[in-house]
Design goal:
Layout: H1 4-22, H2 29-35, H3 40-44, H4 50-74, H5 81-98, H6 100-109, H7 115-138, H8 144-165, H9 169-183
C-alpha cells in the first residue's frame, strides 16, 4: 500500500524541480510520475491536477513566509509607518526573489486554481498582510483594508521589477516607494 502523504510530498518535490528546470508548460503529469518512479495512475489517485500541484507549491511558499513573520516583525519596532512597511516588504521581496521562478509560474497560472485553493491562498495573503494592517491601525489611519490591498498590489508591481528587469529586493522596493507614500499617510 502506498502512503499517500509520502507520495504527495514526493510528487510536489519532483514537480517543483521539473517546473523550475523545464518550465511549467513543458511538464506533464506523466513526467511527474516518472520522476517519482511511479505509474501515472498512482499519481492520479492523489486527485491532484497539474494546476493543483502548482497551487500546493505556492501554498507551501506562503506558509514558509508566514512562519518567518514573528522573526521579521520582531525586528521592525521603530520608524514611521512607511519605514516599517518598507522594511517588511523588503524582507518579503528577498524571500520571493529567492523563489522567483516558482512565484512567476504561480502568478502566470494561478487563474487555473480551484476556488478552494484560491480561498487558501487568500487566507495566507491575509496573514501576510496582517502586520501591515496592525501598523496602519497603530498609526490611526482610516480605510485599513483599502490601504492593505493597495500596498499588497504595489508589492506585486515591485516584484515585476525582479521578474522583468532582474531587480534586487532593494530595487523592487525603490520601484514602489513613491506610491507607497500614498498608502502610509
Amino acid at each position: 500500500m502506498v502512503d499517500k502523504e509520502n507520495l504527495k510530498s514526493e510528487v510536489l518535490s519532483a514537480a517543483r524541480t521539473l517546473f523550475m528546470s523545464n518550465g511549467y508548460e513543458n511538464v506533464g503529469m506523466r513526467d511527474v510520475a516518472k520522476a517519482v518512479g511511479r505509474q501515472p495512475t498512482q499519481v492520479y489517485r492523489l486527485k491532484l491536477s497539474k494546476s493543483d500541484i502548482l497551487a500546493e507549491l505556492i501554498l507551501e511558499l506562503n506558509a514558509q513566509q508566514i512562519e518567518r513573520l514573528p522573526l521579521i516583525t520582531s525586528k521592525i519596532t521603530k520608524g514611521t509607518l512607511q519605514e516599517k512597511v518598507g522594511k517588511y516588504l523588503l524582507k518579503m521581496y528577498e524571500f520571493d526573489i529567492e523563489h522567483l521562478a516558482l512565484r512567476q509560474v504561480g502568478a502566470a497560472h494561478g487563474w487555473s486554481w480551484s476556488s478552494e485553493y484560491e480561498m487558501k491562498n487568500f487566507d495566507q495573503v491575509s496573514r501576510l498582510i496582517a502586520p501591515i494592517a496592525k501598523w496602519i491601525k497603530e498609526a490611526e489611519l482610516d480605510d485599513v483594508n483599502a490601504r492593505c490591498l493597495g500596498i499588497f498590489s504595489l508589492y506585486y508591481v515591485g516584484l515585476r521589477g525582479a521578474v522583468i528587469g532582474k531587480s534586487s529586493a532593494i530595487g523592487c522596493l525603490k520601484m514602489i516607494q513613491s506610491s507607497l507614500t500614498f498608502y502610509c499617510r
